[in-house]
Amino acid sequence: MGRNRSFIEAEVVAQCAEIFRSTGYEGTSIDDLVQATGLHRGSLYKAFGSKRGLFVLALRQSAGPAMPTHDSTDLLLVALMELAPRDPEIRSIAFGILSGVAPRHTPQSLGERLLERAREPRANEATTKDSA
């Protein structure tokens, strides 16, 4: 008999989504997710299957009915740029978000947010400059 979960899945997914938004999918390691959530590696794997499984849940969670925020837009951009070209499920989720009954994201809004992200300093850049 296994132990009961001592975490709220939606909260863990939200914490992981923040890491994916800030460092991208490829730039995020399981260790980053373990550190962000405070869960053990085994608990993450058992509950979510993989880093990709966590990303899929985060993307689906961000596709809710609310108005888009920078957070949801950033996660969609990560999906489109890093995973959609090679992952049919991610591509399908992204297509669903973009082609909903009342699409919340437009090409212009995605392009504007992409440019804003390019201008934002990254935490690791500040650390590198400080140590130089």
TrEMBL record:
Membrane-spanning segments: none
GO MF assignments: DNA binding
Coiled-coil region: none
Keyword Repressor: no
Keyword line: DNA-binding, Transcription, Transcription regulation
HTH tetR-type domain span: 6-66
Annotation: DNA-binding region: 29-48
Domain of life: Bacteria
Keyword Aminoacyl-tRNA synthetase included in the entry's annotation: no
Annotated segments matching region Disordered: 113-132
InterPro entries: DNA-bd_HTH_TetR-type_CS (IPR023772), Homeodomain-like_sf (IPR009057), HTH_TetR (IPR001647)
This protein's name: TetR/AcrR family transcriptional regulator
Organism: Cryobacterium suzukii
Upper taxonomic lineage: Bacteria, Bacillati, Actinomycetota, Actinomycetes, Micrococcales
